[in-house]
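Q: I'm building a small set of examples for a reading group on sequence design. Run inverse folding on the following structure and report the sequence directly after it, with nothing in between.
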């Protein structure tokens, strides 16, 4: 064999021999079979559901971004979602058990491998919906998320919910109902693509003017306080050293404060969320405007990088920069809530989004400082203050142009001692009582609010 090789290369220069070897090697490589690389299926890291009266959210957290297609069916109502790049596994099967009987929108869910790389979810629904399906990029501790928001086909009106607060014997019930009937076109109901406004919110001819009543017989419009428990749902807010979630603490305090306010003569409270679900920042503002709130109070429990930080704070909106570097940092963190909670930027009513423009007036900020001073003073009687004055920063949630608005940081949940106090029902009552005293003092000294006149 060696002799044959020697004979075959006889008479060829060294450079020619090298060239021949390279050609032979290349021919061998081209002859090898090409094996395509198999795509690896995505991994589902977690499945979460957030049922609420306003809408139900289903979240699939994955290690990579996936595409999904969806459509709805009637008779019976169903939502079908096809997710590309998935195969059946235990995590996706857990979605079936996540749906609870009290979910207002989902009756049940079925999961199957529709095609080799496509998982099909079929949601059997309790009513017609306006679904929103979108993906979110990784942020914080979350990886990629596929979000399914199931909104009712007919949007819920915050004013209608407010008018149902009072019993038939409540003298304010009729006043609240009349307020719902006279909705302001400048503050539309928060809605998403595919939703319809309820009939009560549609433009209708003005009813005949009722005979004027004597002042003594005319029902007084109640003072309406919009209470805004921060965070919720996918957005837990700050987390204490013992694992306490800010979203749970602030909702508990808001509920206690609402109970105290509703017990006051001629005063009622409205919660922007009364459950563990996510509400975008601009929708919180829009809800307050829709119910024609006289005051907006956003309730939080902040955190800091050092556990030694402690004390309560009250903030109002600033149009000219934050009052401190810490205030600026806190405002940025709070304004990032939409990124963490997850908002479909293309779905929300454009009129709602406009609320976050620089609409706030100097008069609104001036009134906000007044009520903030009084609330801060009362909280200072039951807890240490982080700063002894009302601070200012560019909080998006404080930008209602016609409602005095404050943000109360009840304590530092990142401080072990203050976290323990925040978990205490007794301390929550003290905070709620102090806030009520400050609110009452504000309205007692500011009787003629311009926007209500």
């Amino acid at each position: 064999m060696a002799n044959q090789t020697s004979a075959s290369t006889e008479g060829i220069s060294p450079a020619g021999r090298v060239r021949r070897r390279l050609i032979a090697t290349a021919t061998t490589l081209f002859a090898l079979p090409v094996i395509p690389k198999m795509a690896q299926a995505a991994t589902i890291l977690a499945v979460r559901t957030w049922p609420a009266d306003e809408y139900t959210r289903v979240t699939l957290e994955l290690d990579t971004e996936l595409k999904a297609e969806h459509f709805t069916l009637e008779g019976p109502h169903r939502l079908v979602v096809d997710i590309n790049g998935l195969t059946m596994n235990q995590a996706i099967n857990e979605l079936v058990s996540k749906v609870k009987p009290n979910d207002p929108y989902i009756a049940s869910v079925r999961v199957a491998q529709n095609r080799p790389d496509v998982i099909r979810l079929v949601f059997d629904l309790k009513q017609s919906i306006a679904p929103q399906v979108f993906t979110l990029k990784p942020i914080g501790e979350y990886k990629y998320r596929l979000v399914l928001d199931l909104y009712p086909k007919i949007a819920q009106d915050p004013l209608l919910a407010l008018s149902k607060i009072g019993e038939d014997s409540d003298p304010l019930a009729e006043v609240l109902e009349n307020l719902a009937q006279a909705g302001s076109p400048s503050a539309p109901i928060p809605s998403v693509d595919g939703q319809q406004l309820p009939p009560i919110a549609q433009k209708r001819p003005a009813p005949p003017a009722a005979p004027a009543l004597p002042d003594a017989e005319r029902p007084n419009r109640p003072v309406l306080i919009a209470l805004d428990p921060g965070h919720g749902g996918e957005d837990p807010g700050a987390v204490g050293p013992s694992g306490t979630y800010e979203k749970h603490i602030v909702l508990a305090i808001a509920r206690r404060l609402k109970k105290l306010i509703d017990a006051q003569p001629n005063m009622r409270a409205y919660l922007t969320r009364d459950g563990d679900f996510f509400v975008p920042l601009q929708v919180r503002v829009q809800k307050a405007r829709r119910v024609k709130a006289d005051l907006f109070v956003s309730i939080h429990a902040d955190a800091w990088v050092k556990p030694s930080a402690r004390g309560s704070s009250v903030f109002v909106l600033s149009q000219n920069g934050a009052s401190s570097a810490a205030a600026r940092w806190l405002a940025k963190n709070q304004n990032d809530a939409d990124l963490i909670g997850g908002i479909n930027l293309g779905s929300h009513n454009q009129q709602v989004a406009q609320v976050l423009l620089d609409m706030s007036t100097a008069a609104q900020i001036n009134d906000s400082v007044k009520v903030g001073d009084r609330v801060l003073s009362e909280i200072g009687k039951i807890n240490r203050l982080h700063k002894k004055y009302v601070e200012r920063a560019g909080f998006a949630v404080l930008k209602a142009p016609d409602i005095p608005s404050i943000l109360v940081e009840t304590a530092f949940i990142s401080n072990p001692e203050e976290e323990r106090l925040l978990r205490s029902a007794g301390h929550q009552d003290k905070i709620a009582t102090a806030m009520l005293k400050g609110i009452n003092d504000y309205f007692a000294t500011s009787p003629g609010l311009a926007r209500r006149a």
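The radius of gyration is 30 Å.
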